[in-house]
Amino acid sequence: MTISAIRSERAWLRIPAATTCLLLFAATIARGAPTAAGAITYLGTDANIYYCDTKCEQPKCITCRAPAMRVRRDDAIVRVADNGSQERVDNSTDYGLPTFSPDGKRIAYWSEGRKDADNSFALWVYDLARQQATQIFESRTERIIYMSWLADGQHLSFLINEPAGLSLILAEVKESPPVRIVTTGMPLYFDWGATAGELAVHTLALNSDRTEQVSLLSLTPTSQNVEKVLSSGRTPFKTPCWSPDGKHLAYIANYHAESNIVVADADAKNPRSIVSLPVGENSFIWAPDSAHLAYSTAITPQNPVFHGIKLVDIASTNSKWLTKSDVAAFFFAPDSRHVAYIGVPGDRPYYNWTVVDVQTGKEKELGSFLTTTEESTAYRFFDQLAVSHTIWSPDSSSFIFAGVRLVGSPDKMAGGIAPPPTAWIVPIDGTEPHQISTAVLAFFSPAK
């Protein structure tokens, strides 16, 4: 499975087909919850992009084109008119994957719709101060499946899904700029360095050799070169990435059939193997303090469940367990003091949120939930999205997710129909979560 699965399904909830009834759910808005810092962007159940502060009393729809509201019904798009009647919208547009700029002042997103009796796949940037959207790219054939801002805030990179594989495109943030195809492959994972001229890539080449490798590229306005091949051959992980302070580059290499987490200088010199990994598919993310990595291994690639999370100190190379529970994804708080992870209870149709204190190892369960297709796909690629998105508030007091929150005893089934999925802000101190709005995907603005 590749990151192209980001748009592979349309269902809202991740519920096994055999499950015919739901657990108890929270259907009312939590009042009086503490307010986290930062701003929020979310994808509504009407396929529009919204923006608001954390109170979200009046969310702003940045993609709505008419006063009528669009909703999904049996995979069809319908319009709900002011009088409550519904009619089919034939040339409607869907939007997806809202992405804050590094300074939090703009939001990038993609669109899929029809234009002049043909398909239209486009990339947009919305300026929050000017309240204006600018189209950066459009194609009639290639879908945009992922996007990531560069550190300068003046360039966007994005993946398009072509018949032969994925292509990584680079564009300046202005109206219809010339775009640059940086590289192609399938799959294709990447991270940009502190400047637009540094790129770490992990991909399987589309040429006849079909070589999988991790490499460091350098780019100028007129050329690009592979500066160094960091690893060649099977490397069971996704995203090579620089530390937040820009001083180190981490990736996984295969040494004599053994996988190791390697940390090198920012220019890929002086590589050190700091962790020897078990056989399986691996994921890691940097702590924002740049002093630690959290990592885990899924033993069975077809079942992407990670068996616990470990924390490694990159200076001493000492590792310790953060949890031994099965998890689907994990996320560092901006202050590096906590990791939120999604637990996977055995044989249950729901997930659990838990936060672990990195220093003490103390865990706090923060509730169970049913996820949406969009959020579930994001969790599947959480290590790639860690370089472009965050679920944490800038002050590290809360995180956000979209889904159906469960209350009471999750193991006791209750009949009924699921409510629409909702964006929830969850304080890590255990106080009541705050319900925002119906949504299928949600993120916080980045910490400054």
Describe the fold and architecture.
The protein has 448 residues and is mainly β. It has one domain (3-444): Methylamine Dehydrogenase, Chain H (7 Propeller). The chain is built from two helices and 35 strands. Strand 28 and strand 29 form a beta hairpin. The chain is globular, with a radius of gyration of 21 Å.
Q: What features would you highlight for this structure?
A:
448 residues, mainly beta, 4-stranded antiparallel β-sheet, 2 helices, 51% strand, disordered N terminus
Q: What is the domain total for the residues? A: 1
Assign the CATH architecture. 7 Propeller
Distance between the termini: 34 Å
Q: Helix/strand/pairing class, anyone?
A: mainly beta
CATH topology: Methylamine Dehydrogenase, Chain H
The biggest beta sheet reads:
10 strands, antiparallel
What coarse outline follows from CA principal-axis ratios?
globular
Strand content: over 45%
Helix content: under 10%
Mean pLDDT: 85
Class in CATH?
Mainly Beta
What's the gyration radius in Å?
Answer: 21 Å
Low-confidence runs (pLDDT<50, min 5 residues)? Answer: 1-34, 68-91
Tally of helical segments: 2
DSSP summary, beta strand count? 35
Strand order of the largest sheet: 24-25-26-27-28-29-30-31-33-34
CATH superfamily: Prolyl oligopeptidase, N-terminal domain
